[in-house]
């Protein structure tokens, strides 16, 4: 397939499609025995693929293992990724993997006056895991990684789906996308390189339609941060929240950073019936809001939370879908029971009985 650059990725010469695998653990029976949490997880495979946007052909691909420093490789992780300790025992550090990517980008892209943009499947890789782990290990990221410019494949699907309302996915997983679009997935599941190449296939599929708003406007986290600082904003955005989180739980989470929000807003789904797992925090000062950005990637319950800059303008635009977080779990239980009761009222058999 060959498409012209002015159809998609305008002003971008290369896509750097990136995917990580990380240490992990699971024990639903005895959760307290879990050895690796989402806040302590370490990258163990660092994979990336370079795509020429003028042809959507892969021009380079690379994957390397990374030896974890503080967490074990659990049997659960090996069963999921097929990565064994033999793969990791002689592997380099996370800093080594970052340097390898940086050297390629500097020598083959920047040195040739070319532009690039990252692409990931969701926010976890570049907006949560890498910044948090680099911060914990005191690794200085290249500026383009610390505050990246990127496409999120899940968001691009949502833009594409507006043009194809008949295509509704059960979830946004790579497996689900490939099944819906009749694309092949080859290789080991949960392999960073395989997943990166699978993303390339999905990118080609989306771009083949030539929609004017798909793979056109990347997320620019550096521009967002600069605007946040320029405005001295007091607003931060939260994503990945537990759906049943309460206001006191959020306030306690923030207190760990020594700050307290003056207002917390929950974002509801468009039908206004359920929380979306996202929200906003408003603080008394810009300095407090800046301090909260350091909480990016920290966990609340078992969820790694994305904390990013926002503004009063965004709050105003989202006003119709904002609500207060519940103050206790009983409120959540009441809402759930109310929703169940309303569903029963619509049930014909229930109405016949009562």
TrEMBL record:
UniProt keyword annotation of Cytoplasm present: no
Gene Ontology molecular-function annotations: 3'-5'-RNA exonuclease activity; RNA binding
Organism domain of life: Eukaryota
Record-linked Pfam families: RNase_T (PF00929), RRM_1 (PF00076)
RRM domain mapped to chain residues: 234-312
Keywords in alphabetical order: Exonuclease, Hydrolase, Nuclease, RNA-binding
Annotated protein name in UniProt: 13345_t:CDS:1
Biological source species: Funneliformis caledonium
